[in-house]
Amino acid sequence: MTTTFKITVAYDGTDFNGWQRQPEGTSIQALLEDALCDLDGREVTVTGAGRTDAGVHALAQVAAFTLERTIAPDALVRAINVRLPESVRLLAAEPVDASFHPRFDAKAKTYRYRIWNADVLSPFERRCAWHIIDRLDVDAMNAAASQLEGTHDFGAFQGTGSDTATTVRTVRHSALRTPHSALLEYDISGDGFLRYMVRNIVGSLVEVGRGRFPPMWLGEVLASRDRTRAGRTAPAQGLFLVGVKYE
User: Fold this and answer.
1) 53 is catalytic
2) Are 13 and 54 in contact (CB under 8 A)?
3) What domains, with CATH codes, occur in the chain?
4) Residues 137-184: pLDDT tens digits?
5) What are 67-77's pLDDT values in tens digits?
6) Which of 34, 40, 53, 191 is catalytic?
């Protein structure tokens, strides 16, 4: 008898080449599949809710797989964690219907981008924030970010080389907050995201924060659907997949 499990995974993506298994390098998917193969005695395919890029982190990535052996969820978490590096951890596991699909059943995803805005970067933040010395205007960035809420064509923020059927996405929340005097956090939630979309948005928001463009410029970039008009791609280390929402 087989059992399908839904798992929640957290990882520091610094030392990995992203979620998806690659011919070379170490990926989160490969680490999980290798650990499960060792546990189940056969090849196990792990399907994730999203493909985080190299260097990107996750607080609560969701994935699923099917095992042939019988094992309790808490025992599964312990068994897999002892087979993983300390930078990758299963947080939870639960049995689900075999039809569950982490990506196609997802109703919303939330990403967070962290910027350390001070003269000196804390050494404890170097792996998980973009260090910007120039003082950023958070109010202007928030005014720009709010224009992304709603259903739009986000082609201007799509990475090159993508082959998606449509670049239309719905963003439910797009805003910055300052939980620390030196720390800016940009949160964005939506029904789906294009390749590099969040990092390209952040790169554009920083242009507004530096005073190079007014807040309304971001709306003009969005309407243009032209990637060359947007800002640079923000570095990977500041980006976190915060969570995935299901019914």
Assistant:
1) yes
2) yes
3) 3-96 (3.30.70.580), 108-245 (3.30.70.660)
4) 999 999 999 999 999 999 999 988 777 889 999 999 999 999 888 999
5) 999 999 999 99
6) 53
